[in-house]
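Dear Dr. K.,

Following up on our conversation at the group meeting, I've run the structure prediction for 5-guanidino-2-oxopentanoate decarboxylase from Cypionkella aquatica. I'm pasting the input sequence below exactly as I used it, so you can double-check it against your construct before we proceed with anything downstream. Let me know if the numbering doesn't match what you have in your notebook.
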Amino acid sequence: MKTVGERLVEGLAARGVEVIFGIPGVHTVEMYRGLSGSPVRHVTARHEQGCAFMADGYARVSGKPGVALVITGPGILNALTAMGQAAADSVPMLVISGVNRRDSLGLGLGLLHELPDQAAMVRPLCPTRQIKDASEVAEVLDWAFATMATGRPGPVHIEVPTDVMPLECDALPAPAALPVAAVPDLGAAVARLEAAARVVILAGGGARGQEAALRALAGRLDAPVIQTVNARGMMYGHPLVVPASPSLDAPRALIAAADQVLAIGTEFGPTDYDMYVRGGFPDVSGMIRVDICAQQLARHKAGVALQGDAGAVMAGLLAQVSAKQADGAARAEMARTAARAELAELDVLMPGRLEMVETIRAAMPGALIVGDSTQAIYAANLYYDHDRAGGWFNAATGFGALGYGPGAAVGAALAALTAEVVCLIGDGGLQFSPGELRTAVDERLAITYIVWNNAAFGEIADAMRGANTEVIGCSPSPLNMEPFAAACDLPFASVPLDPEALHAALTQPHTGPRMIEVRVAR
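The predicted C-alpha cells came back this morning:
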C-alpha cells in the first residue's frame, strides 16, 4: 500500500498540478517518494524563498495555483516572505511543508528544524492545516483547493508531520468539486450605469484573466479604463485604455470628472492610488465596486457593493446595460497625454527609464516582463501599456519583496513554455536571490535577465535625498556581472543606458537564459 507522502502527490496530480517547486530535505523524503514516476514535474530551486516566488510566477501566468514543497523550520520560514507577496497580490499558492513528529510538537526537545509552533508563524499570513492522520489527506487537499478558489485568492499552507508521511494510506477519492461564486443582484448597479453620462472604470488585479469581458463592457459603456499595475496588458493599445497609475494627477482628474465610477477587482492600495503619500484622491464613495472578497468590500464606502467574480459580474452587466456614446476615447486620450507629460515633470523618465522598458516591448513583442523593485519598474508602474494580457507583473507595489524577480520569472517561463520571459531587476535585488538563475539554466528556460546596474539601492537613495536625509547604506558593492554570468553559464552582454544599444542586444538570437547588464550612471 502507498504512503501518505505518495498519496499526497497523487492527490495534487488529480487536482491538475503539473509542477512542484521544491528543495528536498530529510523531512520531506517520503513526499519525494511520491514524485518518483509521477506526472508532476519537480523543479529544484536554490532557496525556499525562491521556491515560493517560482510558485507565485507560475500561478500568475497559468491561472492555476502554484505549489511549493519545503522542509519544516527554516524551510517554511524562508518561504514566508514570498507567501506575504502572494497574499498582498491575491496569488493562489499552496505551500506544503514538513513538521516534526506529532509527539514532539511544542515540547522544545531540540529536534532538527524544530519550531515552538510552526503553524502559529504561518497563520498571520494565510490559512494553515495539519494532516494528522492518513485518513485526512483527501479532506485537507479538498479544503486547500477550495480555499484558494473561494473568495480572495492567496497562499494556503499544509504541514505534514514526519511520522505521518510514511503511514499507509488508502487510495484517495476523486477531488471534490470546486465552489462557484454566485452572481449578485445587479439591479442597482445597472440603474446607476444607465443613468450615468460619463463612466470611468478602475481595473485592478482581480480583473486579470477577463480581458474579453473588460474590453466588451468598456466599449458598451464608452468608458475609459484606468489600470492599476496588476491589470496592465489587458487592453493594450485600446482607445479606451489609460495605463497610468491613479497616483498621478491626470487619471485622478479623469476620475473626478466622471459621474459614475465602476471599480473592478481593486483594493485601492496606497502603492497604486497614492504612491507619493500626498492625499487628494477624488471622492469615489458613490462608486459601484466589484470584488470577490466581502472583507475587502467593507473597507471602502461604495454606492453599490457587488461581491462576486469579476468576469461573471462584467458578463452580467454587459447583458443588461445599454450602449453609450460618451466621448470615452477622447477622454482617455486626454488622460494618457496629460499623464505622460506629468511623468516628465516628475523627472521619473530621466535618464530614460521608461524608454528602456518600452524598448524591451518593441524588441521582444509578446514577452512576459517579470519585475523586481528597481528604477525602471517604478517608472513603468506609473505609466506603461504592455502588449500581453497578464504579461506585466512585479513586486514593486503592495508588499514589495526585493529578490522576487529571478524565481518568479522561472515560474512564469514554466507556465508559458512558448513565450519569452524577461526578468528586469536591479543590481541590489539580484543579490537577494542570485541562485535562482541556476534553476533557469538547469531547466533551459528562455529567460532574459536584464540587470539595471546603478551600483546602489538607487530608489532608496533618491528617497533619502528627497527627505533631506544623509544617504546611508545605499551603496552596496554590486556583483561583477560578466564573471557572475559566466559562473552561471549565461551568455552576457553589457550596454549603456541607451535604447538602441539595448534593442540590439535583445534582438540577438538565444535559446536558453541570458544576462544583459544595463550600466546606469549614479
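Two things stood out to me. The chain is about 40% helix and 15% strand. The CA atoms of residues 307 and 352 lie 42 Å apart.

Best regards,
J.T.
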